[in-house]
Amino acid sequence: VQLQASGGGFVRPGGSLRLACAASGFSLDYYAIGWFRRAPGKEREGVSCISTSDGTDYYEDPVKGRFTIVRDIAKNTVHLQMDSLKPEDTAVYYCAATTASVAYWGQGTQVTVSS
After folding, report:
1. Is 100 exposed, middle or buried (0-12, 13-18, 19+ CB in 10 A)?
2. I need a labelling partner for 27 at 20 to 30 A (CA). Which of 52, 74, 83, 106 fits?
3. What average pLDDT does range 44-60 have in this prediction?
4. 105, 115, 95: which is closest to 8 by C-alpha?
5. What is the pLDDT of residues 13-33, one digit of tens each?
C-alpha cells in the first residue's frame, strides 16, 4: 500500500505546476483524497480535497480559483493543478487518502515559487 506524490519543482510567480498523487496496492475508490502543505516555519495546512466516489471537491481560501483537484480513476491517481502560483505557495506538498477508519500518507514533494 503506497501513495506516491510527485510533480513538484521550481517555478516563477505566475507559473503552473501539476502534482500527482498515485496509489498502488489499493484503489482510491471511496477514499477522500486531500492535499496538504507545510511551508518553512509553519504548521501543515490543508489545501484541497476530493471525494473519489462522487467527485465533490473543496478548496481552502488561499488557493481557491487558482488550484484545481482532479481525479483520474483509470490511473488511480489524483492531480492538483496549480496555476497563478505565488511565492507564498512555496511548501512541501503532501497527499493523503482517508476513510473514517484509515489514512494513508504519501511522501512530500517540494514546490518552490520564486523570482
Report:
1. exposed
2. 83
3. 92
4. 95
5. 999 999 999 999 888 888 999
Integer CA distances (angstroms), 26 to 33, 41, 76, 82, 104, in order? 13, 34, 9, 26, 10
**Per-residue pLDDT averaged across 65-72, rounded?**
95
End-to-end CA distance of the chain: 38
Q: Distance of alpha carbon 105 from its chain centroid, rounded? A: 11
Contacts 24+ apart (CB under 8 A), 68-74: 69/33, 69/35, 71/28, 71/33, 73/28, 73/29
* Placement of cell 510567480 in the chain: 13
- Residue from 43, 46, 42 nearest 33 by CA: 46
